[in-house]
Design goal:
Helix content is 46%, strand content 12%. It is of the alpha/beta class. The chain has one domain: Rossmann fold (3-Layer(aba) Sandwich). Bound molecules: adenosine-5'-diphosphate (ADP).
Length: 265
């Protein structure tokens, strides 16, 4: 059984065509064992990227509330040395951020060469939540798809690789996760009135995501649709994608100056 994670740029992406519960017939134990292997490999690859210090990677995590962004970050951060990692969360913009263009705060958070950034939400909120909640007019959000593509191209040309992951959960799974949050005193703090209000606009969010995923699925920064109803499968897929990306970059240790061998007294 197979489900594509990516579609060629130019093809319409409709989330309704992707099964959020897809898990390629792998079971949980095998998935967790494979995730652990990717995690171990990621630690070494991240170390090399850090030593090489010429390129950077950013994992962009988007998804509806409760889609598992925090859990994915916990998984990735568990396998990579913190000194190689920058985790950033983007909430509703501050007054200062709103006084700049929407990409200002994002650009400032882009990881330096050698590092892996993880964005918990991102510039995509500026074509998703602002559109659904009608925080700005269409004439403001509509040109942003092109602006985002140009921005990601600029950063790509400068040595940044984007790993854009949409964590795809079903409406039914979101209900279960919200219910758990409502009942669990350790999770209630995560819930605000906006989360429940946003659920009533489920279809609008899906439509806004369809457009963002379609219009910003480029050769230089493709989207990955990660089936995320099963947390362990989501973790496996994201770990795999990041490992493949880093392995493809093949970061190298800088050349060693062998004259140093003679200089230790
Ligand atoms: P999270 O849900 O990511 O764990 P919060 O519960 O604090 O964290 O939610 C952050 C909120 O900020 C989300 O509702 C998100 O849609 C909102 N947000 C993020 N970026 C923007 C933006 N550019 N404009 C408006 N709202 C935003």
């Amino acid at each position: 059984m197979h489900q594509p994670l990516t579609l060629p740029p130019g093809r319409d992406i409709r989330l309704a065509d992707f099964d959020p519960d897809f898990h390629e017939d792998i079971d949980r134990a095998d998935a967790e064992a494979e995730t652990k292997r990717h995690s171990d490999a990621l630690d070494e690859l991240a170390y090399r990227l850090y030593a090489e210090s010429r390129r950077a990677v950013v994992v962009v995590l988007q998804g509806i509330d409760t889609s598992g962004k925090d859990g994915t970050i916990r998984m990735l951060a568990g396998g990579i040395s913190p000194q190689c990692l920058d985790v950033r969360s983007f909430k509703a913009p501050s007054a200062l951020e709103l006084a700049h263009d929407f990409l200002w705060r994002i650009h400032a958070a882009v990881p330096a060469h050698g590092r892996i950034g993880i964005f918990n939400r991102s510039h995509y909120e500026d074509v998703i939540v602002v559109r659904v909640r009608q925080l700005v007019s269409r004439s403001v959000w509509e040109p942003r798809y092109d602006q985002i593509n140009a921005f990601e191209k600029l950063l790509g040309d400068g040595g940044l690789t984007f790993v854009k992951c949409f964590l795809h959960i079903s409406k039914r799974e979101q209900r279960e996760r919200l219910e758990e949050r409502l009942r669990d005193p350790r999770k209630q703090w995560k819930l605000g009135p906006d989360d429940l209000a946003d659920r009533t606009r489920w279809d609008d969010f899906q439509e806004a995501y369809d457009d963002a995923l379609t219009k910003c699925n480029t050769h230089h920064a493709p989207w990955h649709i990660v089936p995320a109803d099963k947390k362990w499968y989501r973790n496996l897929v994201v770990a795999r994608i990041l490992r493949q990306t880093l392995a493809g970059l093949d970061p190298r240790f800088p050349a060693f100056d062998s004259s140093l061998l003679t200089k230790l007294d």
